[in-house]
Amino acid sequence: MQTSQLLRHVVFGVVTAFAASAAHAQATPATPAMPAAPAQAAKPSPAATATGKIGATAVTVNYSSPGVKGRKIFGGLEPYGKVWRAGANEATTVEFSKDVTVEGKPLPAGKYGFFVIPAEKDKWTVIFNKVPNQWGAFKYDEKQDALRVMVTPRKSASVTERLVYEVKSPGLVLRWENVEVPVAIK
User: Fold this and answer.
1) How many domains does the chain have?
2) I need a surface site. Which of 6, 31, 49, 141 has the fewest CB within 10 A?
3) 22 in a domain, yes or no?
């Protein structure tokens, strides 16, 4: 008999505690939601797009935009004489809606991987490669080049902290650190 009374008291206690807890939950105002987790930190080299028209041709440049961050870029981070993806992360791409001429040489409409070979002096090599979607220049294959042209870089009036492209007649311009690389397109 004592066991059954003890069992009733335990059950009664559990039920009472449960009921009190439910009543308290209904009487307590809603707790504000936890604040959302902070957004992931900004990418060091965020994706960017430059678009424009050169004549009747739509031109789109997709690239990742690294920062100088106090580093020596050309001849340092990006060595002279080596193929560079002309941005960060995936290779930069350039897309033309119509056939164009680049530095006087024909290039069919399409999307291309865009690479540059910086030079310490004189002209730089600009490359339009038939393989637009590749990571960096690690699997770059010269045999896939659609066009190579030589361009003359110039010193910019001020430092450009974050790599940027601009599309407008007479072509496109890559700007980074203290260098501008114009590419004539018609």
Assistant:
1) 1
2) 31
3) no
Among candidate residues 72, 58, 66, the one with its CA nearest the CA of residue 88: 66
Strand 100-102 with 171-184, pairing: unpaired
Residue at 42 is within a domain = no
pLDDT of residue 8: 53
Q: What is the pTM of this model?
A: 0.76
For 142-158, how does the pLDDT look when each residue is reduced to its tens digit (9 = 90+)? Answer: 999 999 999 999 999 99
